[in-house]
């Protein structure tokens, strides 16, 4: 059963990308991408590995700059922001990395405290502890509070990575391959968590994946990145009823895999 | 601009300073003994064995203490910084820091460069002391010179300029080790192979620059002395 769309505010695009181009030397990764993410929406970007999906969200968060085109996030043109304004904007964007990117020299508690103590300096020790425990509880890993990242499983690391981004209460969540390298049961748990985050924290999200189950379970809308451009968009069933051979090949490969 | 990351600077000073003490102690002590042993025959040939404490003092304070400390630190601390930042880079931890509103340059680079710049001169002074102690034990064993006589001779020989140039030189060495380690770590790529390469490049480049700086400082000090 497909997700309901009543929670999405189609009057407000929190991300608006126009004509985005990005190349690395002779490799033209994004070739004129247009994209809108609406308030409250979970947008899945599907595509094969190496098609520039991760590049897209790195441009949105200001980690990379576009060669051409405009990237408007929460009403601000990312490429025009100075360092201070970009830092402030990033606090409103949560970025969940493919490999979780937990600070491996810190405990789970210290990982979660890290963005909090640097960006909300008026919080007392008790308030920080409360925030950490609350967000950890929301991803179901309160017991991991004092563990090191090396002691956690892949799924747990993903959850902690998501918790670390949630602690700053972002308006937008960017998930880079949230289910990559996980077993099917853990994948389903992560997919449920993404939907829970959307409901509980009222976030708008872009989910980068090549996992069709993830796309089906989490996506309100799906776009397919083919040859550096968005070629298809719509609900899951609309996309995969397409006669486009490239889409069919992607679907068949996932199905067989 | 706040936050000043004092906690991280202290943490790095501990990593660079305290954790290097055993290796620095051993190396400094052995350097003192070996250099004394090697110098004795030449002085004996000229009947100048009494000059041994003076010779050792000049060699250790002016050159050996800062240089040995810096070379040991380049190997231990420089490679550690290169590998640590390299690993953070390839596992996207630096990007994670950036997107969570923290300036990774300030948190990772400034704290490490400050720590090496502060701690290498301190370690260098310590190496000088340990080296002289090693030398004293050797002189005491062979020439039966007392502790007071040995150090009286040492402090009569060295000047304020000797100590000052050694500390300043060690500060430059420390800055070099920190900045080179951070540069190679921060710019590493290509997975685990890149991390190894960053650590290796940090050591090789630091050592090369340390020898060049040593030569430059010697030339400057000699011109000051006239």
Roughly how many Å is the radius of gyration of chain B?
20 Å
The largest sheet of chain A, given as strand count, sense and whether it forms a barrel, is: 6 strands, mixed
The radius of gyration computed from the alpha-carbon positions of chain A, rounded to a whole number of angstroms, is: 18 Å
Beginning-to-end CA distance, first to last residue of chain B? 43 Å
Shape of chain A: globular
Determine the structural class of chain B based on helices, strands and strand pairing.
mainly alpha
List the helices and strands and how they pair.
The complex is a heterodimer of chains A (257) and B (226).
Chain A: E1 9-24, E2 27-39, E3 42-46, H1 53-60, E4 68-73, E5 76-77, H2 83-90, E6 93-96, H3 108-119, H4 125-138, H5 154-166, E7 172-176, H6 184-201, E8 204-209, H7 212-218, E9 221-226, E10 229-234, H8 236-240, H9 245-256
Parallel strand pairs in A: 3-8, 3-9, 6-7, 7-8
Antiparallel strand pairs in A: 1-2, 1-4, 4-5, 9-10
Helix pairs in contact in A: 3-5, 5-6, 6-7
Chain B: H1 6-16, H2 21-45, H3 52-90, H4 93-99, H5 104-143, H6 147-157, H7 160-186, H8 191-225
Domain ABC transporter (chain A): 15-252
Keywords (chain A): ATP-binding, Nucleotide-binding, Transport
Pfam family, one (chain A): ABC_tran
Characterization of this structure:
The complex is a heterodimer of chains A (257) and B (226). Chain A is α/β, with parallel strands linked by helices and 257 residues long. Chain A is built from 9 helices and 10 strands. In chain A, the strands form 2 sheets. A 6-stranded mixed sheet of chain A has the order 6-7-8-3-9-10, with helices on both faces. In chain A, strands 2-1-4-5 form a 4-stranded antiparallel sheet, with helices on one face. In chain A, strand 4 and strand 5 form a beta hairpin. The longest helix of chain B has 40 residues, at 104-143. Chain B is mainly α and 226 residues long. Chain B starts with 5 loop residues before the first helix and ends with a helix. The model of chain B has no long low-confidence stretch (mean pLDDT 91). In chain B, helix 1 packs parallel to helix 5 and helix 3 (52-90) runs parallel beside helix 7 (160-186). In chain B, 86% of the residues lie in helices and 0% in strands. Chain B has helices at residues 6-16, 21-45, 52-90, 93-99, 104-143, 147-157, 160-186, 191-225. The A-B interface holds A 58, 61, 63, 87-88, 90-91, 93, 95, 97-99, 101-105, 114-115, 118-119, 121, 164-165, 168 and B 2-3, 84, 87-88, 91-93, 95-103.
């Amino acid at each position: 059963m497909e997700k309901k769309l009543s929670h999405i505010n189609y009057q407000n695009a929190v991300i608006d990308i126009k004509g985005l181009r990005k190349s690395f030397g002779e490799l033209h990764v994004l070739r004129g991408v247009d994209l809108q993410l609406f308030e409250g929406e979970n947008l899945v970007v599907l595509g094969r590995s190496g098609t520039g999906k991760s590049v897209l969200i790195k441009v949105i968060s200001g980690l990379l700059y576009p060669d051409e085109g405009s990237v408007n996030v929460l009403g601000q043109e990312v490429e025009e922001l100075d360092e201070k304004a970009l830092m402030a904007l990033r606090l409103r964007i949560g970025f969940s990395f493919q490999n979780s990117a937990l600070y491996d020299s810190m405990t789970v508690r210290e990982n979660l405290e890290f963005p909090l103590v640097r960006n909300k300096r008026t919080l007392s020790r008790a308030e920080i502890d409360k925030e950490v425990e609350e967000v950890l509880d929301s991803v179901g890993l309160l017991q991991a509070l004092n563990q090191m990242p090396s002691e956690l499983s892949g799924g747990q690391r993903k959850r902690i990575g998501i918790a670390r981004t949630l602690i700053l209460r972002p308006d937008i969540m960017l998930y880079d391959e949230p289910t990559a390298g996980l077993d099917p049961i853990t994948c389903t748990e992560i997919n449920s968590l993404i939907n829970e985050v959307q409901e509980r924290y009222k976030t708008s999200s872009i989910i980068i994946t090549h996992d069709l189950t993830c796309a089906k379970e989490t996506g309100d809308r799906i776009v397919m990145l083919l040859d550096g451009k968005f070629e298809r968009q719509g609900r899951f069933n609309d996309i995969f009823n397409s006669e486009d051979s490239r889409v069919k090949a992607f679907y068949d490969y996932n199905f067989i895999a | 601009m706040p936050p000043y990351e004092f906690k991280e600077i202290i943490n790095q000073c501990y990593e660079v300073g305290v954790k290097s003490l055993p290796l620095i102690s051993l190396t400094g002590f052995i350097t003192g003994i070996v250099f004394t042993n090697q110098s004795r025959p030449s002085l004996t040939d000229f009947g100048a064995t009494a000059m041994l404490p003076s010779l050792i003092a000049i060699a250790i304070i002016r050159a050996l203490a800062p240089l040995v400390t810096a070379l040991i630190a380049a190997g231990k601390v420089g490679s550690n910084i290169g590998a640590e930042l390299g690993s953070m880079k390839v596992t996207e931890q630096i990007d994670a820091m950036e997107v969570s509103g923290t300036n990774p340059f300030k948190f990772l680079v400034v704290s490490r460069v400050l720590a090496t710049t502060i701690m290498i001169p301190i370690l260098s002074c310590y190496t000088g002391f340990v080296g002289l102690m090693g030398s004293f034990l050797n002189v005491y064993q062979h020439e039966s010179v007392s502790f007071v006589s040995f150090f009286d001779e040492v402090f009569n020989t060295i000047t304020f300029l000797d100590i000052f140039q050694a500390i300043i030189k060690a500060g430059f060495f420390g800055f070099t080790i920190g900045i080179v380690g951070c540069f190679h770590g921060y710019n590493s790529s290509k997975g685990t192979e890149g991390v190894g390469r960053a650590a290796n490049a940090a050591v090789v480049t630091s050592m090369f620059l340390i020898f060049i700086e040593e030569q430059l400082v010697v030339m400057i000090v000699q011109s000051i002395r006239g």
